[in-house]
Amino acid sequence: MTSEASRVINTDNLPMAQDRDGSWRIMRQHPVVEVEGGLAVTHRDLVETVLKQPSIFSSKQAFDVLGSPIPLVPLAFDPPEQSRYRRILQPFFSPRVINPRDPELRRQVIDLIEPIARRGGCDFVAEIGAVFPVQVFLTLFGLPLDMRDQFVEWKDAVLGLTSAAGETSVDAASQEGMQKAAELFMYLTDLIRQRRGRPGEDVLSRLLALTGEDALSDEEAIGLCFLFILAGLDTVMDALGFGMQRLAENPGQRRLIVDGPGLIPAATEELLRLDPPAPFLPRVTSEETELGGRVLPAGTRVTAYLAAANRDQDRHHDPYTLDFHRGMNPHISFGMGVHRCLGSHLARLEMHIVYQEWHARIPEYHITPGTTPRVRWPRGTTGLDSLHLTFDGRDDR
C-alpha cells in the first residue's frame, strides 16, 4: 500500500471499513502523504499550519470544486467575506442560544429511546443516529417533525450527489438525486419567501429578520440551509454511531458513565477525539507555499486529516486508547481557525443528551452477534453503515 520511500497512499485501499484506527495509523506514517488528487497532512503541527492560514490554504477554492449552484454559507468563503457571515451566524449557535433547547430536544430523544428499550434491540444508526439530528434541524428551523422522513430523503440525495462530484457519467441514481436536490431547493426557496418579514423565534425567521449590512439575501439563506443539511446531519449521526460502537466494545469505560453520568461531557470529548464528525477538511493553495519541507504550487489540494492529527503522541498520551479520564483533551475534531465548526456547541449538546438518556434507560448492551459494524468506504467522510445493538440484560462488567 505504501513504503517509507514513496509516501504515496491509495486511500481507497485503507482498511477503513473494518479498522479505522488502523487506517489512521497507516496515514500517520508520514506527516505529508500523497493521495489521489493532492496531499494529506496527518500531524498536528502541519494541520494547524493549514487551517490557521486561510489566505494561503483556501476553503473557498476547495469547495468550488463541488460545483454547487448556491453559496455554501460560510464554508465556501474565505475572509473577509467569510468573516461577515461568521459574525452574523455566531450568535445563533452560541451556548446561550443553544442550551435553552435542551428540554425540548431531550423530550424528543426520550420518545425515540423508550420504545426501543422495550424491544430489546435496534439498529442504532438507523433508529437514533439518522433520525435525531434531522429532528434537531427541523426544531431549530421551526419546521414540523412530521417532515423528518422527507428531509432524510432529500438529505441523502444531496449528499449522494456531493460524494459523486467529479464523476463523468450520470446514471439513473444520480438523475434521481438531482431531482430530489431540486425538490429541496424549491422547498427552501418557498420557505424563505414565506418567512421573510414574518416574526418568529426559529433560527431561520430570526436570520431573515436581520437588516442593514447583516441582512441575508434569499440565495445566501438557501446556502446556509443547504450547508446545515450537508454539514450538520450526517456528521452528528456518524459521531453518535462511532461513539456507541466504542462504548459497546469497551464495557469498562461504558460502566464509568453509567455509574457517573457527570463524566459524559469528558467521555464525549474523548469519543470525538477518536472519531471527528468530519475527519477530512479540504483546502486549496492560493499561492506557492512551503509545507512540511515541500514546495507546493498554487492550486494544490491539501486535506487536513483531523482523526490522524488527534492521535499525535505529544498531545495525547497513548492516543489509540479510549480514556475518559484524560483531563485536558485538546483535540481538533471541530477544526480550528476561522472555519472552526459553528455548530460545535449544538453537536455536543445532541451527543450529551443521547448518551445521557440512552444510558439512563439502557445501561447494558452489546453488538448483536452475527453483525459487524462497517464504515462506508471509500467515501468523502466516515460513518457506520449500521450498528445493531442488543440489550437483553446481560451484564458485561
Structural class: alpha+beta
General form: globular
Measured by DSSP, the beta-strand proportion falls in 5-15%
Q: Kindly provide the radius of gyration, computed on alpha-carbon positions and rounded to a whole number of angstroms.
A: 21 Å
> What portion of residues is helical?
40-55%
Largest sheet: 5 strands, mixed
Strand line-up in the sheet with most strands: 1-2-8-5-3
Unreliable spans are 1-6, 164-170, 393-397
User: Separation of termini?
Assistant: 39 Å
- Overall pLDDT confidence: 91
Element-by-element helix/strand order: HEEHEHHHHEHHHHHHHHHEEEEHHEE
The DSSP helix count reads 17
- The total beta strand count reads 10
Polypeptide structure, described:
By secondary structure, the protein is an alpha+beta fold. Helix content is 47%, strand content 9%. The protein has 17 helices and ten strands. The protein has helices spanning 20-27, 44-51, 59-64, 81-89, 95-98, 102-119, 124-129, 132-140, 148-163, 172-195, 203-208, 218-232, 234-249, 251-259, 264-274, 306-309, 344-361; strands spanning 32-35, 38-41, 57-58, 121-123, 280-285, 289-291, 294-296, 301-305, 366-367, 388-390. It starts with 19 loop residues before the first helix and ends in a 7-residue tail after the last strand.
